[in-house]
Amino acid sequence: MAGVTVVVPNWNRVDLLVHLLESLARQTHPIEEIVVADNGSTDGSPEAAERAGARVVRLGSNLGFSRAVNSGIRVNRSPWVAVVNNDVEPAPDWLAQLAEALQHEDVWYATGKLLNAKSREFIDGTFDTICRGACAWRAGQGRPDATLWGEKRRIRLAPFTAALFRAELFNRVGLLDERFESYLEDVEFGLRSARRGYGGLYVPEAVAYHAGSATLGAWHPETVRRMARNQILLVAKHFPSGWPLRYGWPVVVAQGLWGLVAARHGATVPYLRGKLEGLRRFSSVRAESREAEAGDVSRILEESENELRALQHTTGFDLYWRLYFGLT
Questions:
Q1: CA–CA distance, 149 with 126 (Å, rounded to integer)
Q2: Residues 206 and 238 in one domain
Q3: Which of 42, 58, 110, 183 is least enclosed by beta carbons within 10 angstroms?
Q4: In the predicted structure, residue 293 carries a pLDDT above the cut 70
C-alpha cells in the first residue's frame, strides 16, 4: 500500500482547516504526512495545523494557490500526493477509494465526487472539461446527484480541489504554472498532462463535501480578474499555431459570453482588467511555452468539448452553454 502525503494550501479560515485536519485523521487509508502550505495566514492557522501534527510550510504572504501547492509538492517524500483544499470534508474512505484507482498502471491521478457541503444532494463538481473557446466547466456543478455521476470514467482534467496524484507525474510534466496564481491552474496542468499521454480516473465512490469559494467568493473581483486573465493564458500556452483561423470564433464567443456573466454579477471592471493583463502577457507566455512540441491539443480540445456538450445535453443546458453551442 503506497504512502500518501496530503498537501493542503491554506490562507486563513482556521475553522475550515481544523475541520479538514480532523477529517483527514479519520481516513481509512494511512497518511504518511500532512503538509499545510500556508499563504501568510494571520488567524492562527499555522499554529493550529502544527498542534494537529501537520508539517507547515510558511510562505509569509499570499502567493496564490499554485505556489502554495508547489511548495508542498517540493517537500513531499511519498510516492503519491493528495491535494486537498481547506474547505473540503472528505468521507472516511475518500482516500482509500482514490488509492485503489491508482493501482492501475495507466492511471496517473484520480478525483472523486464533490457534493455541495450545504446541500448534499447536489453536485459541486466531478471532473473538468474545456471548450474550444478556452472556458472550462466543472462537470455536474449545480446538478442533483444522479446515476450519471455514479459512473467511473477516464478523464483528462482533474480539479485540484481534492485529488490524488502519482508524485512521478510532477517530475515528468512539471509543477503547477505559478503565473496562473489561482483559478484554471489545474486545467492548465491537466492539458499539459493529457498532451503527454497521462490520463486519470473519475471515481464516484470517493466522496467529499465542498464549501466552495470559501476564502474569496465566486465573484470576488480578484477571482474574476484571475479567471479572465488565465483564460487568455490557456490560449497562449496551449492553442496550436494558426489557432485564430480554427478557434478564433469560439474563443470570441466563449470569452464574450463569460464577460456578460461577469457583468451580471457586477464584475465588469475586474473582467476587463483580467483580459487586458492576459493580452499584455500573451506574447511572452506563448514564446516561453514548449507545449507546442507535445501531443495533439486540437484533438484534446475537440473531444473535451464534445464531452461537455453531451453532458449538458443529458442534464439540461445552462444558458451560457446553450448560447455558446448555438453560436459556434
A1: 8
A2: no
A3: 42
A4: no
DSSP 121-145: TBEEES-EEE-TTS-EEETTTTSBP
In this structure, the answer to whether residues 125 and 232 fall within a common structural domain is no
Show which of 154, 177, 210 is a domain's final residue.
210
Report the alpha-carbon distance of residue 232 to residue 229 in Å, rounded. 5
Question: What range defines the domain where residue 291 resides?
Answer: 221-327
The half-sphere exposure of 10 on its side-chain side, counting CA atoms within 13 A, is 35
Check: CB of residue 257 under 8 Å from CB of residue 324. Answer: yes
Same domain, 151 and 184: yes
Res. 261: pLDDT tops 80: yes
Q: Is the pLDDT of residue 233 over 90?
A: yes
Same domain, 203 and 246: no
Residue that finishes a domain, picked among 163, 183, 210? 210
Q: Are residues 197 and 301 in the same domain?
A: no
List, for residues 33-65, the tens digit of each pLDDT value.
999 999 999 999 999 999 999 999 999 888 889
Taking residue 121's Cβ as centre, other Cβ atoms within 10 Å add up to: 9
pLDDT reported for residue 105: 84
Question: What single letter denotes the amino acid at residue 36?
Answer: V
Q: Check residue 60 and give its pLDDT.
A: 83
**Residue 296 included in any domain:** yes
Whether residue 115 contacts residue 208, with contact meaning beta carbons closer than 8 Å, is answered with yes
State the average pLDDT over residues 308-320: 96
- Say if residue 2's pLDDT is above 80: no
Q: What share of residues in the chain are helix, strand, coil (percent, to 5)?
A: 45, 20, 35
Contact present, 114 and 210 (Cβ < 8 Å): yes
Q: Which helix (H) or strand (E) holds 38?
A: strand 33-38
Query: Is 215 a member of any domain?
Result: no
User: When comparing pLDDT for 3 and 128, which is higher?
Assistant: 128
Given this model, what pLDDT does residue 211 score?
87
Burial of 1 from C-beta contacts in 10 A (0-12 / 13-18 / 19+):
exposed
**Could you tell me which residue, 264 or 291, shows the higher pLDDT?**
264
Residue with the three cell numbers 465588469: 268
